[in-house]
Design a protein that fits this description.
Blueprint: H1 2-20, H2 23-30, E1 35-40, E2 53-61, H3 67-80, E3 84-85, E4 93-107, H4 108-111, H5 116-132, H6 137-161, E5 163-193, E6 197-223, H7 227-243
Parallel strand pairs: 2-3, 2-4
Antiparallel strand pairs: 1-6, 4-5, 5-6
Helix pairs in contact: 1-5, 1-6, 3-7, 5-6
């Protein structure tokens, strides 16, 4: 009897895995490869270039220590488009960028609205069916019981081992273009003074640069993401989000 019960437990758990696929297995298979999506929010596509000298300064607020890698890759991309990387004082364009990232890790059972009880139910049904095939009503009850317990335990363990990791990056860019003549820039902003009063602040300044704003977003996800392996591809795409604002340079 003990041997039969043991095999019923094993078959009940297998019934859970085969009948529901279990959230962990489905998630690990569906998202086994790194998926990325680069979205340009406010691309400038600057084409009327006064020169090809560019300076780039990035601030990394992602917590992932990617500033150096992304900046180096962005500079290489700009060089490939015909631009020269120089200090800010010599630049025709100064790019100031800030990178941020929101990180999430979702349990496999939550990815497709699955739950540990799904494994318990499937295990119970599978165990009962397997037990019934023996011709012994008690075996059906035993099979259902061990299937419920084994199925729930299997789902919980698997779901704790498999996570869907998601990284949502945002890049905000301020691009300064050196002007041939001195410019006067008008700036207005709203500030709150106290709980009810709004004040408008307006000022002007002389500047040697035209100012443009641009931005992009990068969405990346993978089951149990290995950051050491994902870092290179993600850094390349973040650099692309910066460099894509500049068309290949031509003196014509």
């Amino acid at each position: 009897m003990h041997s039969k019960t043991h095999w019923l437990a094993v078959l009940g758990i297998l019934a859970c895995l085969l009948s529901t696929g279990c959230g962990a297995i489905k998630t690990s298979l569906k998202y086994k490869d790194l998926e990325t999506n680069l979205i340009t929010k406010e691309a400038l596509f600057l084409t009327d270039m006064p020169g090809n000298r560019v300076a780039l300064k990035l601030t990394d607020s992602t917590g992932l220590d990617i500033q150096e890698k992304v900046q180096k890759q962005a500079e290489e991309d700009l060089k490939a488009r015909g631009y020269e990387i120089v200090p800010p004082a010599e630049a025709d364009y100064i790019i100031r960028g800030k990178l941020t990232c929101r990180q999430m890790a979702v349990a496999a059972s939550d990815v497709d609205s699955a739950s540990p009880t799904d494994g318990a139910i499937a295990g119970g049904v599978g165990g009962a069916v397997i037990g019934a095939t023996t011709g012994d009503p008690r075996a059906a009850l035993i099979g259902a019981g061990v299937g419920v317990v084994g199925g729930a335990a299997t789902s919980l363990i698997a779901d704790n081992l498999v996570k869907l990791d998601t990284l949502d990056f945002e890049g905000k860019l301020m691009i300064l273009e050196r002007a041939n003549t001195s410019l006067q820039m008008q700036t207005e902003s709203s500030i709150r003074a106290g709980s009810e009063t709004n004040q408008r602040l307006s000022y002007s300044e002389d500047t040697a640069y035209k100012r443009y704003r641009a931005g992009f977003a990068l969405h990346a996800k993978q089951a149990n993401m290995d950051w050491a392996k994902a870092r290179d591809k993600i850094s390349e795409l973040l650099a692309k989000g910066i460099a894509d604002n500049f068309e290949p340079y031509s003196q014509e």
